[in-house]
Amino acid sequence: MSLSKKKPKSMPQKKGVFDAQAFLDSAGVARKVRQFKRADIIFSQGTPANSVMYVQEGAVKITAVSEGGKEAIITILGPGDFFGEGCLAGQPLRMGNATATIPSTVLVIDKKEMQNVLHEQHDLSDLFIHFVLTRNIRIEEDLVDQLFNSTEKRLARTLLLLARYGKEDQPQRALPKVSQETLAEMIGTSRTRVNLFMNKFKKLGFIKYNGGIHIDPSLLSVVLHD
User: Fold this and answer.
1) Cα 66 to chain centroid, rounded
2) How far apart are CA 78 and CA 222, in angstroms?
3) 206 assigned to some structural domain
């Protein structure tokens, strides 16, 4: 499904925060809406980078594969996140793979269309810049976390990030479906270690299993504990 350009309407706001989804719906931004099933490939490493994508519903895993065939998980994204934006900086080919981890709805915006709308619509460009800077900060924090923190802290931090803890406009507490193998890859440890700490968190009441993993804010105490 694609939309033709229309004159932008007033942008709906939510709690004083610019709503990117409302903007994309109302401003006539030409884009395609694509549905993906669990494990569907959204794009592959080495394919042409010619669009920016926005997660409307679901969850997307970004991975990269080395020349030797070793795969590393870069991040897992959820509703409200952009990805594939490297094309805006002249990236000709995708540097990683994007895969739906659960049934997902993704908006696909052509590179030129995205460049035009970022130039013309300051609200969206401000939000987009904030997203990119925030994700860069998170990548730096991930590196520090990997180098200096214990496995237990790294797992707790990853669970909180996946549950979007601290985002007032997205008060999610249930994780997108993610396996212990995936969590182990994300924090650089074994599935056995992840299982050990997940059981510990459950006994302490930090997490609950109820058709998925539900995170209690008290899990933050593990990250803050010295």
Assistant:
1) 21
2) 24
3) yes
